Amino acid sequence: MKPLVQxxxxxxxxxxxxxxxxxxxxxxxGEVVGLLGxxxxxxSTFIKMLSGAYQLxxxxxxxxxxxxxxxxxxxxxxxxxxxxxxxxxxxxxxxxAANIFFGREIxxxxxxxxxxxxxxxxxxxxxxxxPQFRKFKDPVSNLSGGQRQSVAIARALQFNARIIIMDEPTxxxxxxxxxxxxxxxxxxxxxxxxxxMISHDLHDVxxxxxxxxxxxxxxxxxxxxxxxxxxxxxxxxxxxxKLPDGSYAPGILSEENA
Amino acid sequence: MTxxxxxxxxxxxxxLKRATVAANIDxxxxxxxxxxxxxxxFFHITSGGIFLSPRxxxxxxxxxxxxxxxxxGMVLIIVSRNIDLSTGSLLAFLGIxxxxxxxxxLPLEGAHSWWLSMVVxxxxxxxxxxLQGWMIARFTIPAFVVTLGGxxxxxxxxxxxxxxxxxxxxxxxxxxxxxxxIGETWSWVVGIIGFAVLVTxxxxxxxxxxxxxxxxxxxALDVVILAAAAVLIIAxxxxxxxxxxxxxxxxxxxxxxxxxxxxxxxVMIYVANMTRFGRYxxxxxxxxxxxxxxxVNTRAVVIASFALIGGLTALGAMISTARLNAAPLSIxxxxxxxxxxxxxxxxxxxxxxxxxxxxxxxxxLLMQSLQNGMVLLGVQSAxxxxxxxxxxxxxxxxxxxxxxxxx
Lengths: 258, 407
Ligand SMILES: Nc1ncnc2c1ncn2[C@@H]1O[C@H](COP(=O)(O)OP(=O)(O)OP(=O)(O)O)[C@@H](O)[C@H]1O
Ligand SMILES: [Mg+2]
Prior knowledge:
The complex is a heterodimer of chains A (258) and B (407).
Chain A: E1 5-14, E2 17-27, E3 32-37, H1 43-51, E4 58-63, E5 66-68, H2 73-78, E6 81-84, H3 96-100, H4 115-129, H5 145-157, E7 163-167, H6 175-190, E8 194-198, H7 202-208, E9 211-216, E10 219-225, H8 231-240, H9 252-257
Parallel strand pairs in A: 3-8, 3-9, 6-7, 7-8
Antiparallel strand pairs in A: 1-2, 1-4, 4-5, 9-10
Helix pairs in contact in A: 4-5
Chain B: H1 2-9, H2 12-46, H3 54-79, H4 87-105, H5 113-139, H6 143-162, H7 172-179, H8 183-211, H9 219-241, H10 256-274, H11 276-286, H12 288-293, H13 298-324, H14 335-345, H15 357-376, H16 381-406
Bound molecules: adenosine-5'-triphosphate and magnesium ion.
């Protein structure tokens, strides 16, 4: 199958910090890839270059085989890339519908905001995630952590994405909501949507992902299917950068000793 | 799904919830209206029945209009985490510019002088505001610094036109903007049109929600709100109509500055609540990073908000100079602080993201009522300023407590 996304040899620096160095990742249609790594490994930075939140220093991104230039969040969205950010990126003072449609509001034919239409759609999409949710009139600052996360996920679902990036989507969710998100990820997968899922929960990752990719100190350690590895090996890779065959990934040891 | 939620929204439990949500939004507004009422009664009694006379209320409404017009713009500036300290000076600059254009560049009393000079003022106001906004957005210079620069710059720029000489008299048609009023009949017409617009909007909103088949406000509540609006409109028009022209039986009716304020307020309420631009202002104020990640052109939003307050400052400059029939360099001194105070007293939070146009209008009315009442009681201007300062600090303190309580 032809890859939907190819991120090749990506570098990103913040001043003196090499946040991402020579990291690559491929995504097939309908595939879930789990991106794993320590705190500060560079996972969020890496995916933010696909979301358009950051500009890459060097390397390239291909979508459908063509090299593309993702210059800002809008251009990523135009390619069908939706992101659920680790910080959720919600405007706390706005309500659920306003957050879901933030930046992509529905307008009436006179050019005014079409509040009823947006609220209507918000009720629909939130129903897929959190059927008990009723606080549509409240600013999202009044919502629980799990409800806020649902709003952030709803925003990614509302706009027919081809690629969804989830940076720790279930961190604030209870077991029931986590199950709903897991079901949702399976449903999206069946629709042919490609998903990058960052998570610290190895159980969730092995449950949902087709492949895992491990990062350490901004570098690529290992990528492979969940069948060819297990949780213990992955844990070794995450913590030590130690590959299944006992060797170390290039660049990892020198970093460690430095 | 939709069906179910539509039904459950009518349930008793959610009805209660919605009532409290609605009440939550309104408690603060009601408290402010209560404060204005208390102030009015206090001054009415202590001034021996002068404060609530038609004549004084008419004057109060004119005095409020410039502050209130600017405060509607200041709300959006503060909501989006900026501040504008330049409005008083910019008002002086634009006033002098307009006076210069209509008396020295164009023929004084020329048929087109009055409106051409107004166009020049609005364009110059938007450009000046937009320029400040551009420096803030493009180079991330803090708004406090850029507009503090504006505070010093614009009054100086005004001086250049006339070398400090006060331009007077102004065009006689132009003077209507500040000193005119529309008479009894037209005041009623305006009142009736205003009420008709409110009814139409209520009906349109109900129809739109019905078409989508969900949650509607109870009819009774809409009727009560409209009835209250009708009473207020009638009381307002009657008051304005009972202040007569000198040696005449004819009432003055709604003053032109107040008419301008009404139009500005309606437009700004629409902009703040019903347009993309307004949504971006509030969203950006709530979380600038979220706005950025949502693909909002945040620079353009900030620049537009400053261009907007620049345009409103031009309206303020027209009213102020037309009322005085002159454009002195000293006009609009400390106005920026009054405008900021009006917005803050009206519930605009200096931490951004929170504030309403209606609140700012009531804030402006409250400030101006205090000032007007103190003048009636013969309070000197030095203690006046000290009292206003205390009111401002009290209002911010109240806001701090209010924001904490909500969390
Ligand atoms: N905007 C930034 N400016 C400067 N340094 C940054 C910035 N964003 C990230 N970094 C640094 O880059 C490195 C990678 O951070 P990143 O947030 O990508 O890690 P992560 O893998 O997502 O970690 P976590 O699991 O904690 O979310 C860290 O050392 C971090 O301090
Ligand atoms: Mg992260």
